[in-house]
Structures are given as structure tokens and as C-alpha cells.
């Protein structure tokens, strides 16, 4: 099997699910068209078999040995052609399925990367996960069924022409019967579409609930909330089950129609053919051919109803993908690059992080510090500047490379620990130095395989404090021009916090660093402290000077205690 195309798919136009499916088809036009060509050849080879068999029977009844040999050889040739075309059709269909499914993954992941912090604010985790769990399969099926479905249409047309040529009455029966079958199936598609959409939305909500429960399982056990959340999960899962049953009820009618309607058409064609044979209007071989055509028509007609079902599911799945692709980042970047280093300033709050200074931001509430950090990191629209250049004018790629905002919402992903901490691939000495500065050496030493140990999803084998220290080590290894940390020691004990504060100040000496914290241990190590209340900088200076002369700062840092 060939690998997926290496061409950059970009992010497609997101004006509708139908347009997205058409874009997916255009992006793989060559394998799709070649697959359709092989499918047409495959179906036509099957469609010609009843005619060849009928001609062979007529030759046998007429004792025509040469004709019998000729038609037997033709039958053998059709069998070989059908086998070869079937293999090639299947190979192309698999390529089309994989390309459509995983190209959807590519554009979705690319869009998620472009959206960044905007994505979790607009969509739930479950909705995004559902794209990779089920929607890519339905989009792949929609492309796959196009290969067989278009071939089935050509086969039905060819059989109709043959029947009309042999017997106009039988040909007209097929010509009129096939559209009537499509019309009969049509009323089932609209409720199926609607119920599938509702089912997909409930599945996304349930996946979000499951992710929340798994992520907070330790806390739930600590407060005894497992039964409450388990009950809520059971209730939502029952809603998904009932929605699935409603979908299945329509699908069962559709499946029944795939058997009943072609069966009625076959019965009618066979009855008419037998009547004509009794009257002597057609030969015995033609009667066998008509019966063969009637049986053959089951497959292409079922393929057409299957195509209606899978295209409907693909349309529903594409709607979810389009919902993601329609989102735009909250913050748009400029085009300037190569901006010289300088102070990082937020005019809205009056906070200025001086270049090369280890600065601490102590705020009256955590929300105030986070809002200022988001503006300085360009995660929300603001008038913040780097030097004399507004951040909105700098290219987003350069901003993300030069300014790193690390908060406690960051995660450790599944994989090798070394890869999670150091994507850039530094040498062991640099990695161990960052672990030492983050007071995380003991965590790695306790693992059987050290840095080569496998990390589970979201780093769930580590405690909250251990995850926080590992995330700090990862941020230090990134070594950005400007590092903004949000409460990097909130989950560690006092002894570890004191060591981290001292080592962090030494590790970032001469580098621009902002730490949002109210920890006295960290504040005491800062070169410069800015106190913020009501979203505005109220005081600046050394930690001990502010303690001595600013009562509000002292109350915030000491939690109201002397």
C-alpha cells in the first residue's frame, strides 16, 4: 500500500459540509477517478456475464460447438477481467478512504495549531476528539462509496440498454423501476440525517464528560464524588444510547429497503421474462440471461442505497469538521520579523517587564495576573509592546518563538519523557541542568528508565507537584527570549519551592523573565516586583521594601497574616 500524498493540503474553504467533501474529492482526483474507472470495468465485466451465459446456452441448444467454445472463452475472459479489475478497484478504494480520512486529520490538526488558545474556548474536548474517533471514518466511507456507486450507476445503465435492445418492455421496467426505488428511499434520508446529527452531538458531549472525569479522578476520589459523576455519566450515556436507537430504527428501514425494493424489481423482471419465453418471444438463453440480470441488479441497486446512507453520514461528519474550520483565532498577528529585543510593556495595566530582569508580578487576584500575562504573551487583543513595536504588528510565529507563556493548564503528552521535555533535542547535560533548576531530578531518577521512560496520557502517573516541576523544566529547556510563568510553584512543598526560586533566578539571570506569583519565597528572589490591584500597577520595587511600606501588598503576600 502506498503512503499518503505528501502534498501540503492547506486549510480548505469552510463554507459548508458539501463544499468540504468536494474539496476532499478534488485533493485526490487521480486515485478517485482511476478507482471509478476500475469500478466501472469491474461492474461491466459482471454485467456482461448473464448475456454471455445466455448466448452459450443458445449455442448449446442449437448444437453449435464453435459458438459454445467462443462464448465459453468469453466467459473465462470476463472472469479474469473481473478479478483483475476488482483487485485494482479495491486498492484504489482503500487509498481513497485513507487519504480522505487522514487528510481530514491533517487539516483539523493544522487548524487546531492555528487556533491555539482559541480552540478550547470555543469547542469542547469531546467534540474535537469525535472528529478523530468517528468522523474521519464516515468521510472516508463517503469517498469510498463514490468509487463503487458511480460504477454501479454505469452498470445499471448498461444492463438497461441490453434489456431494451433484447426486449423493450423489460428494459423500460428497469429504466422506470430504478428511479422509483430512489424516490422511495428518499423520505428516509432526511430523518436519518437529522437523527445522526443529534447522535453525533451527544457523543461529543459524552466524550467531554469522560475526559473531565478521567482528568479529575484523583480529586473526585478525595472528595468522594465518584458516585455523583458516575451517575451523571450513566444518565448522559443513556441519552446517547436512545439517540443511537433512533438512528438505528431509520437505518433498519433503509437496510430493509435495500432488500425489499430490488427484490420486487427482480421478481417483476423475472416474471415478465418467463412470460415472454412461454410465448416464444425470447429464447431459453435469453430467459436465463434475464434472470441473471435480475439477480445481478441486486448488487448495484443495494450499492446505490448504501451510497445514499454513507453520503448522508459523511455530510454529517463533514459538518463537524467545517465547524472547526470556520473558527478564527481571537488574536491575529502582523508581518514584522526581526524585531529587536526590548522591554515588554502592557499599557492597560502599566506593567513593564524590563529587558534582562527577573520580574515578579503579585496581583490581588489570580485572574488579574493571568489577564496581564495573556496580554503580554499576545493571547488576547491589547496594546502591549515589545520595545517600541506593538505586539499586534509582529508575526505570530516570531512571537511564539521569542515569548513563552507557561501556565498550569499545559499538559504532558503521551510518549517518551525525554521527547516531552525536550522536543529540540538538547544534549544530556543541558537537559539535566534544566531538571536540576526545576528541582525535578528526583522525579526522573525514580523512574526505571529515567528520561527514556514512557509517559502516560496527560502524565497521570505523576502527582500535581511533579507535573508542575516537569513542565517548568520543559519551559526552561525552550530557553525563550522572554519567559512568562504563571504560579510555577503553587503545587510544591515549601522546601522545594525555596530551591526552585533560588535556582530559577540563577538560571534566568540576565534573561527577561516574568513570574506571576504571590509566594514570598519567589518574590524575595526577584530583582523587581510589581504589585497589581484592580488590574492596575499600584507599586513597584524590591520585595522587602514593598513589605515594609505598602500595607496592601503586605496583606496580599502574607494572606492577611503578619
Automatic annotation (TrEMBL):
Pfam families in the cross-refs: ABC_membrane, ABC_tran
Annotated keywords: Membrane, Transmembrane, Transmembrane helix
The keyword Transmembrane helix is annotated on this UniProt entry: yes
GO molecular function: ABC-type oligopeptide transporter activity; ATP binding; ATP hydrolysis activity
Bilayer topology annotation: Multi-pass membrane protein
Domain ABC transporter: 288-559
Residues spanning the membrane: 29-48, 68-87, 145-164, 170-189, 259-278
Presence of keyword Membrane: yes
Identification of the protein by name: Multidrug ABC transporter permease
Domain ABC transmembrane type-1: from-to ranges: 35-313
Protein location: Cell membrane
Gene Ontology cellular-component terms listed: plasma membrane
Coiled coil: none
Superkingdom of origin organism: Bacteria
Amino acid at each position: 500500500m502506498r503512503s499518503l500524498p505528501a502534498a501540503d493540503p492547506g486549510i480548505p474553504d469552510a463554507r459548508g459540509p458539501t463544499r468540504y467533501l468536494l474539496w476532499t474529492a478534488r485533493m485526490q482526483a487521480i486515485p478517485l477517478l482511476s478507482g471509478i474507472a476500475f469500478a466501472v470495468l469491474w461492474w461491466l465485466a459482471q454485467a456482461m456475464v448473464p448475456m454471455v451465459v445466455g448466448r452459450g446456452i443458445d449455442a448449446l441448444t442449437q448444437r453449435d460447438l464453435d459458438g459454445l467454445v467462443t462464448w465459453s472463452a468469453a466467459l473465462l475472459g470476463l472472469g479474469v477481467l473481473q478479478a483483475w479489475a476488482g483487485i485494482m478497484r479495491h486498492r484504489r478504494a482503500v487509498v481513497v478512504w485513507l487519504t480522505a480520512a487522514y487528510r481530514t486529520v491533517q487539516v483539523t490538526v493544522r487548524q487546531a495549531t492555528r487556533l491555539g488558545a482559541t480552540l478550547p474556548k470555543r469547542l469542547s474536548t469531546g467534540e474535537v476528539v469525535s472528529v478523530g474517533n468517528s468522523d474521519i471514518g464516515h468521510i472516508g466511507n463517503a469517498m469510498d462509496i463514490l468509487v463503487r456507486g458511480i460504477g454501479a450507476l454505469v452498470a445499471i445503465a448498461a444492463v438497461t440498454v441490453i434489456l431494451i435492445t433484447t426486449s423493450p418492455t423489460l428494459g423500460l421496467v428497469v429504466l422506470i423501476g430504478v428511479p422509483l426505488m430512489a424516490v422511495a428511499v428518499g423520505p428516509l434520508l432526511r430523518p436519518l440525517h437529522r437523527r445522526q446529527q443529534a447522535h453525533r452531538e451527544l457523543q461529543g458531549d459524552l466524550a467531554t464528560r469522560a475526559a473531565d472525569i478521567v482528568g479529575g479522578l484523583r480529586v473526585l476520589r478525595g472528595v468522594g464524588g465518584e458516585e455523583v459523576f458516575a451517575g451523571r455519566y450513566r444518565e448522559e450515556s443513556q441519552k446517547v444510547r436512545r439517540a443511537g436507537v433512533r438512528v438505528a430504527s431509520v437505518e433498519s428501514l433503509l437496510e430493509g429497503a435495500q432488500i425489499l425494493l430490488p427484490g420486487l424489481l427482480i421478481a417483476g423482471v423475472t416474471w415478465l421474462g418467463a412470460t415472454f419465453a412461454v410465448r416464444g418471444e425470447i429464447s431459453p438463453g435469453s430467459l436465463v440471461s434475464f434472470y441473471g440480470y435480475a439477480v445481478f441488479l441486486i448488487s448495484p441497486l443495494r450499492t446505490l442505497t448504501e451510497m445514499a446512507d454513507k453520503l448522508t453520514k459523511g455530510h454529517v461528519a463533514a459538518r463537524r469538521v467545517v465547524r472547526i474550520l470556520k473558527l478564527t483565532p481571537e488574536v491575529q498577528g502582523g508581518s514584522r520579523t526581526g524585531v529587536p529585543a526590548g522591554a515588554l510593556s502592557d499599557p492597560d495595566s502599566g506593567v513593564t517587564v524590563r529587558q534582562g530582569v527577573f520580574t515578579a508580578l503579585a496581583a490581588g487576584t489570580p485572574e488579574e495576573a493571568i489577564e496581564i500575562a495573556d496580554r503580554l504573551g499576545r493571547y488576547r487583543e491589547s496594546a502591549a509592546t515589545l520595545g517600541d513595536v506593538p505586539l499586534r504588528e509582529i508575526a505570530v510565529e516570531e512571537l511564539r518563538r521569542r515569548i513563552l507563556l507557561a501556565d498550569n493548564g499545559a499538559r504532558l503528552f503521551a510518549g517518551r519523557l525525554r521527547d516531552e521535555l525536550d522536543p529540540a533535542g538538547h544534549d544530556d547535560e543541558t537537559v539535566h541542568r534544566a531538571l536540576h533548576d526545576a528541582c525535578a531530578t528526583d522525579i526522573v531518577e525514580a523512574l526505571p528508565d529515567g528520561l527514556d521512560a514512557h509517559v502516560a496520557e496527560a502524565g497521570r502517573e505523576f502527582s500535581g507537584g511533579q507535573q508542575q516541576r516537569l513542565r517548568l523544566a520543559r519551559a526552561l529547556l525552550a530557553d525563550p527570549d522572554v519567559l512568562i510563568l504563571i504560579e510555577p510553584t503553587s503545587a510544591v512543598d515549601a522546601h522545594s519551592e525555596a530551591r526552585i526560586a533560588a535556582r530559577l533566578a540563577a538560571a534566568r539571570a540576565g534573561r527577561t523573565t516574568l513570574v506571576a506569583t504571590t509566594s514570598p519565597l519567589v518574590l524575595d528572589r526577584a530583582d523587581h516586583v510589581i504589585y497589581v490591584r484592580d488590574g492596575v500597577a499600584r507599586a513597584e520595587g524590591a520585595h522587602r521594601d514593598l513589605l515594609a511600606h505598602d500595607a496592601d501588598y503586605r496583606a496580599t503576600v502574607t494572606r492577611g497574616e503578619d
